[in-house]
Structures are given as C-alpha cells and as structure tokens.
Write a structure and sequence with these properties.
Blueprint: E1 11-13, E2 19-21, H1 22-27, E3 46-47, H2 49-74
Antiparallel strand pairs: 1-2, 1-3
GO molecular function: zinc ion binding
Domain RING-type: 16-37
InterPro entries: Znf_RING, Znf_RING/FYVE/PHD
Length: 75
C-alpha cells in the first residue's frame, strides 16, 4: 500500500477502526482490512469528511482574493 497523502487521497475508516485511503481500499482484490484482515464491503467504507471539509475550505480560501477584487471593481 502507498503512504497516505491528504492532497491525493480521501482518508477512510473501516468498521474495525483501521484507516486507509478510499482508492487503496477499493483496489484491494479481497475486501479485507490491510491491518487486521477483517472482511468489509464497499458500503462499510466510511469517508472521513473532516479532511474533505478542510480541503474544501482551503480551495475556497484560494479564490477569495478574486472575489474581493471583483467586489471592489463593481463599487
């Protein structure tokens, strides 16, 4: 398995409590946790939205200067 990279991957947890990225879990030929080998289904993969929201907030922050400039130009 590849090392987790927050920018490229969405971190997920399984019902057993172990974490991995969504892409890595979907690529597993046998749906067993890579840490404890407990079986899981795709429906049991839980995306950790805290990290998704953090990334979304950063993307918005990147566009704020343009939004501010547009408001100034309209006045």
């Amino acid at each position: 398995m590849e090392k987790y990279d927050e920018e490229k991957r969405i971190e997920c947890t399984l019902l057993c409590g172990h974490r991995s990225c969504f892409e890595c879990l979907n690529k597993l030929p046998n749906k067993n946790c890579p840490t404890c080998r407990k079986a899981f289904t795709n429906e049991q993969i839980i995306k950790l939205f805290k990290l998704i929201l953090k990334q979304f907030s950063l993307e918005i922050a990147l566009f704020q200067p343009e939004i501010v400039e547009n408001k100034i130009e309209k006045k």
